[in-house]
Amino acid sequence: MDLAALKTQLKNFVQSMFEEGVLDNQFSQIQALQDSTNPNFVEEVITLFCNDAEKIINEINRNLGYQNVDFSNLDSYVHQLKGSSSSIGANRLKLACANLRQASDERNKEG
Amino acid sequence: RKRQLLTEIVLRNRLTALVVDADTTCRVLEQLLLRSYGVQTQGVDNGRDAVTLIASGVKFNLIIIDMILPILNGLEATRQIRDMGVHCKMLGVTACSGESERQAFLAAGVDVFIEKPLDPEHLVPILRELDG
Question: Which residues does the record list as Phosphohistidine (modified residue) (chain A) (predicted)?
Answer without folding.
Answer: 79
